[in-house]
Amino acid sequence: MRAIGQESLGGPEVLKVVEVDPPEPGASEVLVRVHAAGVNPTDRWNRATGGLLGGSPVRLGWDVSGVIEAVGVGVTMFKPGDEVFGMPRHPREAGTYAEYVTSPARHLARKPAGLSHVEAAALPLAALTAWQALVETADVRPGQRVLIHAAAGGVGHLAVQIAKARGAYVIGTARSAKHAFVLGLGADEVVDYTRVDFASAVRDVDIVIDTIGGDYGPRSLRTLRDGGIVVSLASPAEASLASEAHALGLRAGFMIVEADHAGMKAIAALVETGRLRVEIDTVLPLEQAARAHEIGEAGRTTGKIVLSVVGEDPFGSERSSDLR
């Protein structure tokens, strides 16, 4: 089968198409014929640094949407032919930039019938991150004020919708050109971080979702009300930030998204009830994985980048091209 591999760490150019043997599902695993694979910032970080995967060679990709090809011993929840989506094994290696991938069965869920595989592949890691940060870590409740940084980004635009679905008042940060998009997702306010210091413009926030890192964590503490929390998704919160937060009666912490069947089912339910939609910025064929990483590193995407493995073009646009 074709897959994307790399023999060394480095820039996007290290990503190459390789021919490898298809994997075989073990006990409690399934083999998925990949139709599409999402591209995420953590993919680029692991490509360049080894990240949580260690040194090269590295096989990238966690987001997947496709069709069950075979099931391993002990699997009862899926059968060959089922359409599924999910985030296998994160933060361990999964290798979804490929024509086939194995996954623990319970790291997947049934794909919502109304979504193309390209759209479904854009959801798992980003939507699970938003869900676990907002619902399971911060325990967002109706009426709370939530500040979401980079609200037009991959995680951000889904976090806006999940927070609104939970009844929160949502404030996003984004460039002015993206304000209409963020408001269209349901945000109540949008702050142009290039013109206004969000830490001065926003007050009495219960939850901050920090997708950026750097000084955004410490600055975000200034926006919180007593008992509020900053959930950092970009980098581990330093001990000094946690200590500063504690001294102020606040909380701060770093979260790594985990594979979760129940979370995937909750996301699918939001999609099926019309409360969650994914924005696709760019669709490219598998062999253009390096180009997908280049686009992501430019930092101007709205929504998600997806690799189409079987040449699907759900948008009828030039954003996707056939592989064969």
Written description of the protein model:
With 324 residues, the chain is an alpha/beta fold. It contains ten helices and 15 strands. The protein has helices at 41-49, 117-121, 124-137, 154-165, 179-184, 198-201, 216-221, 239-247, 261-272, 289-297; strands spanning 2-5, 16-19, 29-39, 64-71, 83-86, 100-104, 108-110, 145-148, 169-173, 189-191, 205-210, 224-232, 251-254, 280-285, 304-308. Strands 3, 4, 5, 6, 7, 14 and 15 form a seven-stranded mixed β-sheet that branches. A six-stranded parallel β-sheet has the order 10-9-8-11-12-13. A two-stranded antiparallel ribbon has the order 1-2. Helix 3 (124-137) packs across helix 4 (154-165). The two termini are 14 Å apart. The relative contact order is 0.16. Mean pLDDT is 94; it is low at 316-324.
Which value, in Å, is the CA radius of gyration? 19 Å
Query: Proportion of β residues?
Result: 25-35%
- How would a textbook summarize the main sheet? 7 strands, mixed
End-to-end C-alpha gap: 14 Å
Give the number of DSSP strands: 15
The residue fraction in helices comes out at: 25-40%
Number of helices: 10
H and E order: EEEHEEEEHHEHEHEHEHEHEHEHE
Shape: globular
Question: Which class do the helix and strand fractions yield?
Answer: alpha/beta
Please, what is the average pLDDT?
94
